[in-house]
């Protein structure tokens, strides 16, 4: 198994996408890239900790590659918006790839090059880390499958992301 850490705005939204991919065995929402140890959701939302809301994806590279994960990542959020995703504004919503180790750097750089071609050279996604991962509070985990489907924000944001996933990556979805 391998891991990838991706920040593409609201972690509820990115988690909902990546949980549907074949070869993905776990998706955990959390915080990374900041200066406060064991931050809380409230602290991260304040924008003062420098953490990003992110997901840690555990996957089987024999089923889905790091490159494929990055292609899904770039297709299901807007990597051209600096420090925001739609109405979510602040560095905690930045578009970033957090390296688990330096071996991922070349793959992350190649993913950005592919995304630049798709987005007319306007991608602002950063490559950061390695950095300390902090799991989000329990109520954030598997949010879409629980409370998220009653949350108006999630109902507005997640279904279009899932539609993009199903349209562009049908071959990578769980059966």
Describe this structure as you would to a colleague.
The radius of gyration is 15 Å and the shape is globular. The chain contains 5 helices and 8 strands; from the N terminus they run E-H-E-H-E-H-E-E-E-H-E-E-H. The model has no long low-confidence stretch (mean pLDDT 97). Strand 6 (95-98), helix 4 (105-118) and strand 7 form a beta-alpha-beta unit. The chain has a single domain (2-172), classed as Peptide Methionine Sulfoxide Reductase, Chain A, CATH 3.30.1060.10. It is an alpha+beta fold and 175 residues long. The chain starts with a strand and ends in a 7-residue tail after the last helix. Helix 1 (11-18) runs parallel beside helix 5 (152-168) and helix 3 (66-75) packs parallel to helix 4 (105-118).
Secondary structure elements and pairings:
Elements: E1 2-8, H1 11-18, E2 24-32, H2 41-45, E3 52-59, H3 66-75, E4 84-85, E5 88-89, E6 95-98, H4 105-118, E7 126-128, E8 133-135, H5 152-168
Parallel strand pairs: 6-7
Antiparallel strand pairs: 1-3, 1-6, 2-3, 2-8, 4-5
Helix pairs in contact: 1-5, 3-4
């Amino acid at each position: 198994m391998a891991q990838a850490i991706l920040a593409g705005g609201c972690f509820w939204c990115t988690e909902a996408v990546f949980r549907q991919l074949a070869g993905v065995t776990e998706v955990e929402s959390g915080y990374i890239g900041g200066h406060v140890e064991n931050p809380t959701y409230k602290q991260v939302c304040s924008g003062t900790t420098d953490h990003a809301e992110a997901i840690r994806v555990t996957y089987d590279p024999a089923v889905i590659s790091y490159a494929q994960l990055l292609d899904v990542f770039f297709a299901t959020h807007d990597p051209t918006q600096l420090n925001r995703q739609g109405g979510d504004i602040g560095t905690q919503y930045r578009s970033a790839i957090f390296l688990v180790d330096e071996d991922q750097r070349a793959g992350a750089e190649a993913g950005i090059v592919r995304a630049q071609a798709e987005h007319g050279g306007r991608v602002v996604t950063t490559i950061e880390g390695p950095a300390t991962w902090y799991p989000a509070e329990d109520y954030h985990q598997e949010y879409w499958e629980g409370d998220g489907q009653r949350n108006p924000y999630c109902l507005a944001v997640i279904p279009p992301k899932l539609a993009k996933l199903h349209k562009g990556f049908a071959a990578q979805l769980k059966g």
